[in-house]
Amino acid sequence: MDEDLESAFLKFMEVERSASPRTTGNYQLALASCRGWYGEKFAGWRDATADEFRRWLFDMMKQDLAKATIRLRFAALRSFYKFLVHRRGLAKSPVAEVQLPKPDKKLPVVLNIAQIDELLALPLQAPIHKQTQPWMPLRDAAILELFYSCGLRISELRGLDVKDVDFLGENVRVRGKGAKERIVPIGGPALSSMQRYQREAVVTNGPLFLGKLRTRISQQAIDQLLKKYLKLSSIPFKISPHKLRHSFATHLLDAGADLRSVQSLLGHASLSTTQIYTHVTKERLRQAYDAAHPRAK
Fold first, then answer.
1. 106-121: buried (b, 16+ CB within 10 Å) or exposed (e) per residue?
2. Cys-Cys link to 179, which of 18, 130, 153, 266 (CB 3.0-4.6 A)?
3. Which residues are catalytic?
C-alpha cells in the first residue's frame, strides 16, 4: 500500500535521519500534494514516471508557485524515492531525471549595528504591564542577546537547557539540525543578561528559557516577544529570529571573520550555504562605495 510506504519513509526520516517535525511535516504535505495532483489517475508510487513528474512541475510553474515551494516538494520526492530504492527494492528513481528551475537568489535582510543595539536594549526599557512577572523582561533581553551573540536558530535556542551553558568557559552547547552538536562562544553582554535572568527567575535546572507557566518557552511566544519589541523600535521592516542569525553572520564577515569559522558557528553542513553572506557583505560594500565616493556614478 502506498500509504504504508509513505508512513515508513516519514518514520525513517524522523528516527534514522533525526529530521525535525517541521521537515517531516513538509515532506508529508509534499507527497500529499503530488497524490492530489494525480487524483483518481494515481497508480502508485512504484509506477510513477519521470514524464508524469515533469507535467506536475509544469503545472506548478503555470500556477506561478514560488520556485522555493516547487524545489521543496521535489526535495521531498527525491528523498522519498531514494528511500524506496535503498529500502524497498525499487529499481531507480523517476524523479532523478527531472530538471528543476534554478532557485531565485535572494539576499538575507540584515539589521545594522545601530538597529541591533536599539532592539537589544528595548526589553529593559519598555513599560511593564501589571500582570508581567518581574523576570520576564530579563528573559526577553537574554533571548535577544543570545540570538545575536551566537547566531542560533529558534529551535536551537528554545531547546537549550541550563546545563548547556558554560558560564566559566563562556560558551553554549547547541543541538542543531540532524541532532548534530556544536560549541558556540557567548559574548559578555549575553552572558551577563542570562545570569541576571536566571537569578531573578530562579532557573537552576531543566529548560533554560521559560514561558508564563514555567515550562519550556514555545516558538510562538518567542515570535510574539520579537514582534512586541519591533513595534516599539524604529526598525522599518519586519524581522524574525532568523534575521538576527543573518545579522550575526554578516557582521562577523564585515569585521573580517573567515568563512569557515562562520560556517562552523552557524552549524551549516555545507560551505555553499554560508557563502550567501559574502554576497551580502559585497553588496554592503558597494552601497557604501556608491554613497561615499565622489566618482562612483
1. eeeebbeeebbebbbe
2. 18
3. 153, 177, 242, 245, 268, 277
Q: Which three cell numbers stand for residue 105?
A: 537568489
Contact 239, 108 (CB under 8 A): no
What's the predicted TM-score (pTM) here? 0.64
Q: Are 28 and 10 in contact (CB under 8 A)?
A: yes
Main-chain dihedrals φ then ψ at residue 273, nearest 5 degrees: -65, -40
**pLDDT digit string, tens, across residues 174-230:** 998 877 899 999 999 999 999 999 999 999 999 999 999 999 999 999 999 999 999
Which three cell numbers, joined as nine digits, stand for 218? Answer: 514555545
What pLDDT does 293 receive? 60
Instruction: Give the three-class secondary structure for 57.
Output: helix
d(CA 69, CA 44): 23
Q: What are the distances in angstroms from CA 218 to CA 63, 157, 185, 203?
A: 35, 10, 24, 17
Cell of 113: 549595528
d(CA 162, CA 183): 15
Q: Residues of CATH 1.10.443.10 domain(s) within the chain?
A: 113-239
Assess contact for 23 and 13: CB atoms under 8 A.
yes
> Domain 2-97 falls in which CATH fold?
DNA polymerase; domain 1 (1.10.150)
CA atoms within 13 Å, Cβ hemisphere of 283: 11
Task: With a cut of 80, say whether residue 22 has pLDDT above it.
Answer: yes
Strand segments (E) across 21-180: 165-166, 171-175
The Cβ of residue 76 has, within 10 Å, a number of other Cβ atoms equal to 23
CA dist., res. 100 & res. 67, Å (int): 9
